[in-house]
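Protocol step 4 of 6: record predicted structures for both targets in the notebook before any analysis. Target 1:
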Amino acid sequence: MTAEELKKMIAAGLACDELTVEGDGRHWYATIVSSEFEGKRAIARHQRVYATLGNKMKTDEVHALSMKTFTPAEWANETN
């Protein structure tokens, strides 16, 4: 699995305003900005992202994914 492949999987299942993925092939770090996160707590946001990966976490194709999730408004505050 490459960063680009993982990024495409997330983007295919979740409308993202911003999406970056970095990692070493086993441990991944993602920053994800999506309006779908509006009104959701962190755990629900993470579950939504995990849903885009299907069984990839269970089969260990994606061993670990650490993420920061933001709504567009939160991201605007974070980057200004």
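Target 2:
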Amino acid sequence: MDSQTQTAPNHPTAHTAALPHRLKRRRIFILPTRHGLLFMAVLGAMLLGSLNEHNNLGFMMTFLLGGILFISLFHTYRNLSDLEILSAGATPVFAGDTAVFDLRIHAGKWPRSAVAFALNRDATVLTDLPADRDAWVRLRVPATRRGMLVPDDLRIWTRFPLGLFRAWSRIPLPAACLVYPRPVVGFMEMTSAATTADDSRIKSGEKSGVEDFQGLRAYQPGDPPQHIAWKAFSRGQGLLTKSFVGPSRDALMLDLQRVRESNPERRLSILCHHVLQAERQRTAYGLRLQGTRISPGLGPAHRHRCLKAMALN
């Protein structure tokens, strides 16, 4: 099992559902484990032996172990009681990657030990929760198909302190993860937004090139290493990229109908690749799907809008 708790997530969450949900008495179930059943059987045998032999020491040992069993039952239940799930959310991923759901959890007035969280059977997080402050638990779910990934119910359980009892609860988690199409390299006919039949002439105005230096901008994955401003980085200004201005050209219109591929999912994957490529090259682009048209633009918000349209198409 993977143990993983963080004081805060390292990225903002999307599709976050605020759901203060406190585990109350009627939502917590508890049963003895196999070790607990064996322990009870041994106690029963010890009690019978003590009765037959009139052994006071045997009575004392039996009642002592029975008290430990009862106290273990109480502490196992208490380890989940009043545990509060404050929020849950996930950032979009591409099909074939792993969706990451971040849960914000408040333990309450006392710490919780060895609490397990899971959204599927293959990824269980076992962690300790500190008292009087929030903790972040990260759960991973395979994202095999594009669209909206809705996870199974959140399962929470514990066998603390002695493993003799197992307390558990299930919570429907009102959170989802948007899964973009998986990008695949492929051919498509490129057209400018100005030459499509029902588009007005839109100019991108600027395009990355090598003619004139424009300034510095924040580094983005995929930027050429030779354009990184290493001097600025050495001065502690962060990772920046040199931006150049080239000649103006028409914005691209990426049209699903112009992808030469018979498989519908592969067509979307190829279109996804060209959206990412246009974004990396800083070329303004629009998107046309069946029943959907997005005007040309650039930037993270425009990229997300296009990828979301393809994911839900």
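Step 5 preliminary note on target 2. Confidence is low (pLDDT under 50) at residues 1-18, 197-211. The chain has two domains: 5-31+79-178, 191-311.
Proceed to step 6 after PI sign-off.
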